[in-house]
Write a structure and sequence with these properties.
Elements lengths: L1 H21 L7 H12 L11 H20 L22 H26 L5 H8 L4 H10 L6 H28 L10 H24 L6 H19 L4 H14 L4 H25 L3 H6 L1 H16 L3 H6 L5 H11 L6 H10 L5 H25 L10 E6 L5 H8 L4 E7 L2 H7 L5 E3 L5 H6 L7 E4 L4 H13 L4 E5 L9 H7 L3 E3 L1 H14 L1 H8 L3 E7 L19 E8 L2 E3 L12 E7 L3 H9 L3
Parallel strand pairs: 1-2, 1-4, 2-3, 4-5, 5-6
Antiparallel strand pairs: 7-10, 8-9, 8-10
Helix pairs in contact: 1-2, 1-11, 2-11, 2-17, 3-10, 3-11, 4-5, 4-7, 5-7, 6-7, 7-15, 8-9, 8-10, 9-10, 13-17, 15-17, 16-17, 23-24
């Protein structure tokens, strides 16, 4: 019987997304659909699946891996001071500030709701009510954000950070609650051991993780072995010190994220989790519910709508914070998504029942109300959310030297996908060109002056002075400070000093006006149509780096916009590849293509989204 139940759950995990795709069900996240399927298959309706020991263990692994992957999704760059691009003002409300403010409001509102329930006599434990109402189902939130491809965007990270606080803070509060009510408050300090263990593991493996990538083979998969070692080490420590195992899993995900795993590692871990373990957790969550028993109890019938209303009202404050940066409609969408809760509610109720702090009817009402939020809130989120009118992420180009060569190029580039800054040390040139471009006057080009002016904070640096010695020194400084691309002008040079060869070996791209003019004239003679393509006002030749994981592993012929462009070459790992319809795209590929200028911005935006 145990094997049959597992087989039915695995079949349900396979068929649920296929069924949703076949009937174009897009408003319901897959995770929520799996909970509903579990309710249908479990004791509530068909009673085909029984919660056996095998399913219990796999479900526990599912929630552990789900929370681990959630920890890996936190973008820690958000915690660093963000430098504005160009002349833009720094954002007053960052995702971190919004999330902290929103979750603080959730805790305060939850406490007030717990106090009101105490006054009415419906539920007397104010602290337990505060913990339960302040929880957020991080797994459901991350599944909904992933399906909308929002994790790489400011809005997605804001809601994700709010949900992360809604999981980690109640877990810590639950640990303290259990220790105090269980008479073990003296051992509460032991919870610190799990954080010390996480820091130790991070420091221990940071130095050897890169070594793993050099010796890793398909038969060893050292990165995956390390991930599971981190998970079970911190989960074991968490259980030993009296904390919940998902707290250890979340910290393991953070440690793995800080080790900076490759995209391939992340994809493999995601495949393992969402391909097998996580669907089992969501389906068995529904299987365990006994709706007829819950609905037959009069007290439960009264408590279910009350608890559901409290879950929703507790998350009303985030809307007001989200409105500071996002549209009103999306602020409400984020508030509804943050109201989903189930993951921490179940272990919280288990602990409370073991401490005899809650009745079985109350626990059942809490669980059913939480399940309703998981069904109701993501659907409203999907209905309300509309893509934000975000600024395009432009490539930052810095020109050192303002003259008749660099100014026209800068003016043309500023009309497209580039954010331009220009610097000069010549006052005459500054006064001449300042009205035509974004030019700043520097006293010198020594390294410290360039650092103080934040010149090295760029994607591409173009050194346009005629003096090749000055360009050489500046290129050396830029290379030292890891500027991704450096383009240096070398007109006249001393053949004996080999400075051009030194720069070439460092990856600096060199040019001079004479060679450029020769290449242009040759192009006009040999390939007049190509030159026309480059200068055409309605079409052009473009290049974009593929950063969107959605397109990694997709064949070129399956690109949704393939009929609007013609891909001439793929630049991958330093080599040019001739594309065919069945050529697979890899993340990091540079696609060189032609297309109508009206279509290109959206195509470049879709391909270059980092997620």
């Amino acid at each position: 019987m145990a094997q049959l139940s597992l087989l039915i759950v695995l079949l349900a995990a396979l068929m649920t997304p296929l069924f949703m795709a076949r009937f174009k069900i897009t408003l319901v996240p897959t995770a929520v659909a799996e909970i509903i399927v579990g309710i249908i298959l479990g004791k509530s309706f068909l009673n085909l699946v029984h919660f056996t020991e095998n399913l219990r263990e796999l479900s526990s692994l599912g929630v552990i891996i789900l929370i681990f992957l959630s920890g890996m999704e936190i973008d820690f760059n958000l915690f660093r001071p963000q430098k504005p691009i160009g002349n833009a003002k720094p954002a007053k409300w960052t995702p971190v500030k919004l999330a902290v403010g929103a979750y603080t409001g959730i805790v305060i509102t939850s406490a007030l709701l717990g106090w009101l329930l105490h006054l009415t006599g419906l539920f007397n434990d104010i602290l337990l009510a505060t913990i339960i109402f302040s929880t957020i189902a991080l797994g459901v939130v991350i599944a909904a954000l992933t399906e909308k491809e929002l994790l790489s965007k400011s809005f997605g990270q804001t809601v994700l950070l709010t949900a992360a606080l809604g999981e980690i803070v109640p877990l810590l509060a639950l640990t303290a609650y259990a220790s105090i009510n269980g008479g073990q408050s003296k051992s509460l300090w032991l919870v610190l051991l799990i954080f010390l263990a996480a820091i130790f593991l991070l420091l221990r493996f940071r130095g050897i993780y890169q070594f793993f990538s050099r010796i890793d083979k398909s038969t060893t998969q050292l990165d995956i072995r390390l991930a599971f070692f981190l998970i079970f080490t911190l989960v074991t420590i968490a259980e030993r010190v009296g904390a919940e195992n998902i707290l250890g899993a979340f910290l393991a995900g953070i440690v793995m994220k800080l080790l900076q795993p490759s995209d391939a590692t992340r994809d493999k871990l995601t495949s393992i989790g969402y391909g097998f373990f996580i669907p089992i957790f969501f389906i068995t969550t529904g299987v365990k519910l006994d709706l007829p028993k819950l609905l037959s109890d009069r007290q439960s019938l009264v408590l279910i709508p009350v608890f559901f209303a409290c879950f929703m009202l507790a998350k009303i404050i985030p809307v007001f914070f989200y409105r500071q940066r996002y549209t009103t409609k999306n602020a409400w969408a984020g508030g509804f998504l943050a109201s989903t809760t189930i993951t921490v509610v179940i272990p919280t109720l288990t602990v409370a029942q073991n401490l005899h702090a809650i009745t079985s009817q109350q626990a059942g009402a809490f669980i059913l109300a939480a399940v309703i939020t998981c069904i109701f809130s993501p659907i409203i989120f999907n209905k309300l959310y509309a893509p934000e009118k975000e600024d395009l992420v432009k490539t930052r180009v810095t020109f050192i030297g303002t003259n008749l060569l660099t100014i026209p190029v800068a003016q043309q580039l500023s009309k497209g996908w580039y954010d331009i800054k220009m610097f000069t040390t010549i006052p005459k040139n500054y006064h001449t060109y300042n009205s035509e471009a974004n030019v700043e006057l520097l006293p010198d080009l020594d390294e410290q002056t360039l650092l103080d002016a934040d010149v090295f904070n760029t994607d591409i640096m173009v050194l346009g002075y005629f003096d090749y010695n000055l360009n050489f020194r500046t290129a050396q400084a830029a290379s030292k400070h890891n500027v991704p691309r450096i383009i240096a002008r070398f007109e006249e040079k001393n053949v004996a000093d080999n400075k051009d060869e030194i720069l070439s070996q460092q990856g600096v791209e060199l040019f001079n006006s004479f060679d450029v003019n020769i290449s242009l004239l040759r192009g006009m003679i040999e390939s007049p149509s190509t030159l026309k393509l480059l200068t055409d006002t309605s079409a052009g030749l473009y290049e974009v780096a593929v950063q969107n994981r959605r397109y990694a592993g997709m064949e070129l012929q399956n690109l949704p916009f393939i009929n609007s462009i013609t891909i001439s070459r793929i630049y991958r790992n330093g080599l040019f590849i001739a594309p065919h319809g069945d050529t697979f795209i890899e993340k990091g590929d540079h696609l060189i293509f032609t297309g109508d200028k009206a279509d290109v911005p959206e195509i470049r935006h879709q391909l270059s989204i980092k997620n």
